[in-house]
Amino acid sequence: MTTITASTTAATATHTASRSLRPARILLYGALALGLIATLAPFAWMFLGSVKPTGEIVAAPSAWLPRSPTLGNFGQLLSKQNFGLYFFNSTVVAASCVLGNLLFSSMAGYAFAKLDFAGKKLLFGLVLTMLIIPGVTTFVPLFVLVSNLGMSNSYLGLILPFVVTPLGVFLMRQFIRDIPDSLLEAARLDGAGEVRIFLRVVVPLCRPPLATLAILTFLAQWNNFLWPLVIAQTEDHYTLPVALALFSVGANGTNYGLLLAGAVTVVTPIVLLFLVLQKQFIQGIAHTGIK
Amino acid sequence: MARRTFVAWGFCGPFIALFATFGVWPVVSSLSMSVTDITARDIRTPFSVDFVGVSHYTALFGDPVFRRAAVNTLYFVAAGIPLTMIIALALAVALNSGIRRAKALFRVGYFAPVVTSVVAIAVVWRYLYEPDGMINSALAVIGIHGPDWLNDPHWAMPALIVMAVWRHFGIPMVIFLAGLQSVPADLLESARVDGATRWQAFRNVTLPLLRPTTLVVAVLLSIGYLQFFEEPFVMTSGGPLGSTTSISYYAYQQFGFGNYGMASAASYVLVAAIALLSFVQFRIFRAKA
Fold first, then answer.
1. Domain annotation covers residue B20
2. Where do the TM regions start and end (chain B) (predicted)?
C-alpha cells in the first residue's frame, strides 16, 4: 500500500518537474548553443579567411563567406614561405619527444613504482617539485647549456630538453603503482627477469596512460613556442609556431591571407587529431588535473 | 640484492641523466645566475663572472618597467583566474544538469580552443580586435562604440585576458565535470526533499564537495597564468606603453638584451610567486575543508 502511494507520488513529481522544466531546458540549450557559436567563431573565421584573397579579408564590411574562394594562400605558403619544411620540423620534434617520453617515462615509472633503490623518495620528490617550475625559469641556463654543448640551432637542441618530462614519469608511476605485485611475483617465479617482466607484463597493461602521455606530449610540443623561438636561429630549424610568429610580426604583417593560411596549417593537424581522439584528449587532461 | 639495485638504476638511469641535465641543472643554475653578473658574452667562459649578491633583485624592484610588469601579471592573474573558473564551472554545471542531447558536441566544442597554438590563434584574434573588426562590429549592433583594443593602454590587457580565458576554460571545465560527477545524487536528492531550492542545493551541497576540485583548478590556473607570456609576445609585444608586459615577458626581454643575471632574477621572482600562491591556496582550502 505504502509502496504504491510512494511510487505514484514520485511519478506525479517527475511529471510536473519535467513539464515545469521545459522552458528552463530550452533556455539552457539556447545559452549553451550561443556559447558554443561564440567559442568556435574564431575558428570559423580562420578557416573561411584562409581561402579568401587578402583584399576580401580586409574589405569593410567584411563578409563571413568567401566570394571568390582560392587555395592561392596555401600555394604561396608552400612555394615562397617554406611552410612544408616547418611542418616537417614540427613533426620531427613532436614525434621524437613523444617517443622519448613514452620510453624513458615508462621505464622510470616502473622503477619508481615497483623497484627499490637508494634515493628513490628524494628523486621522486624532485620530480614533483619540477612540475611547478615555470618554463621561463629554465630557458636561460638551458640556452647556455645547449649552446655550450654545440647543439643550438639543431634538431638535438630542439628535442633533448623535452625528451623526458616530470609529468610523464609522474603519470606512469601513478598507473604502474596500481598493477598488483602478485602479477609481477608470478612472472618472477616463472623465471622472468625484470626486463622481460617490464616488456611482457607492465608495458602491455600500460596502454591507457601511454596513450594519454603520447597525446599530451604531442600537443605540448606541437604548440611549444618559447624554446624553439630561442634555440632555432635560422629558418631551416624553425617549427611552425616560430615561423608563424616571426612571419606575422615581420614585413608580411599585413598579408592576412597568408597569415590565416599559416594559422590553419598550424591548427589543422592538431584539431584533426583532437577530433579523432577527443575522448582520450579530454580524459588525459582531466586525469592530470585530478591525480 | 646488489643485482636488483643495478636493475633499478638501469630502468631509471636514462631518465635521471636527462632529467638532471635538462631539468634540475637549469633550475639550480638559474638561481646561481641570478646572483652573478653573467651576460651573453660570458656564455662560453662561465668562470669569468662575478658574484653580485642580491643586487639584481634590488635592481628589479627599483626598475619601474619591472614593477609595471609585476602589477600587470597580478592584474592578469587576479582577473583571469576567477573569470576562467566561473565560466568553466557554469558550463560544467550546465553540461551536468540533465542535458542528454548533443552533450558530447558541447564538450568537444568547448574544449577545442585548448588544443590550438596561441600563435595561430593570435593571428585571428588580432583581426577580431581591429578598430573595425568583428568584436567592434558586434558591439556597434547594441550601440557601443568599441575602442582600438590592442592599441589602447587601458583596453589591451582586458583584450588579452578575454583571449586567454577563451583558450583555457576548457581544462577547468572538464576537471569540474569530473568533480561534479562524483557528487552523490542522493545527497542532492535529500536536500531537495528537505525543501532546498536548486541554488541552495548547489551552494550548500555541491560547492563544498567540489572544494578539492576547486583547489586543483586554482593551483593549475595560477601556475599557468602567472607565466603569462605568449599572448603579449604575439599580440602586443608587451605594449602599448608597457601595459601588457608581464614578468615572463620582462625576463625574455632581459635575455634578449643579454642580461642573463637579470633575466634569471626576474624568473625567480616568478618561482617565488608561484610557490607562495600555491601555498596560500592550499592553506585556504585546507582550512575550510
1. no
2. 7-28, 74-96, 108-128, 155-180, 209-228, 265-285
* Residue entry with cell 545559452: A31
Kindly list the domain boundaries of chain A, sorted by start residue: 82-289
In B, minimum Cα distance to A275 occurs at B108
The C-alpha of A69 sits at a distance from chain B's nearest C-alpha, in angstroms, of 18
Question: What tens digit of pLDDT does each residue of B6-50 get?
Answer: 888 899 999 999 999 999 999 999 999 999 888 888 877 666 788
Fold of A82-289: MetI-like fold (1.10.3720)
Residue B48 covered by a domain: no
pLDDT given at position A67: 84
Using an 8 Å CB-CB cutoff, list chain A residues near B166: 39, 42
Is B36 among the domain residues? no
DSSP annotation of B244 = T
Q: Do B123 and A281 touch (CB under 8 A)?
A: no
- The verdict on residue B46 lying in a domain is no
Query: Residue written as cell 629554465?
Result: A138
Considering its fold, how many domains does chain B have in total? 1
Q: Check which CATH number belongs to the domain holding B67 and give it.
A: 1.10.3720.10
Provide the pLDDT for residue A242.
92
pLDDT at A289: 59
* Residues B11 and A108: beta-carbon distance below 8 Å: yes
User: What value does the mean pLDDT of chain A take?
Assistant: 85
> Do the chains contact at A43 and B112, CB–CB below 8 Å?
yes
Residue A224, classed as helix, strand or coil, is coil
- Contact B92/B177 with Cβ under 8 angstroms? yes
CB B260 within 8 A of CB A140: yes
Whole-structure pTM value: 0.89
Q: What pLDDT sits at residue A272? A: 93
Residues 6-35 of A with CB under 8 A from B: 21, 25, 28-29, 31-32, 35
Residue of A nearest to B111 (CA): A282
Contact A285/B174, CB-based, under 8 Å? yes
B66 lies in which domain range?
54-285
